[in-house]
Amino acid sequence: MGGGELKRRVAVAVVGIPLVLAALLVGGWLLGSVLAVVAVIATVELFRLAHGVRPYVVPGTLAAGMIVLLATAYPTPVRAAVPMLAVLLILVLVTLAFSIWLRWPDGQPLEAVAVTLLGPLYLGCTLAFAMFLRHLPASVSDSGAVERWQATGFVLLPVASIWVGDSAAYFAGRAWGRRRLFPAASPGKTVVGGVAGLAGSTAAGALIAALMPSAFQEAAVSVTTGALIGALLGVVAPIGDAAKSVLKREAGVKDSGRLLPGHGGFLDRVDSLLFAFPVTYAVFLLLGVAP
Length: 291
Description:
single chain
């Protein structure tokens, strides 16, 4: 990567990181709206990777955004499950019905419906867990109130772990990486980068737990537990990235999009988080934090 592209990456990060942190702090419909927009754009990028298949772009992207907004309105999996399932079911039935006229006989109706459904599942349902994480303090607080700073910590833990881990993996891999971690799926990933990413994610998890003592102590999440969660995410992150890379390689493209200079598309930026948000929620569920 040349110096110019690195500068563009840094510039986007300098602008984007404060905006993301502000949305996490405010939460509510602001965060939900931002995540819904990301889900819609990333779903469009995903559909573009499906070469030779014509997914139903408008219904698929609307469903992805709607699922995130439903998670905003009903910010626990139990409350959101039925309306989210209803959106997915309606999407399947509508696209199957449309396929009679719009995809048969030469439009690969099975592939079209399957890829259309993948969008809201892969982007909408996974990003919805950011909203579920953002409202976890209500389940551990005696008053049921959600304090902004404390609430931010539950979703900031996976975000910071992924960001720090990705940065450590990128710079260490470029400097010292030789052996490939996923030679076929993602040749840019190295073993050295993976180790550095794991260390960075572990440190970030511990740091966030240390900075959020009131919320995390009440939820029985110590600094050690935060470090262990970060380490787990350090393993999950490269898997999420490699899974997306497989889709790009099948499509024969380097980036999923060009909206973020130096970073590619929105799908390129959230691929690891798509795995990290549900995994983090599952860990909190095992710890008894999540309802």
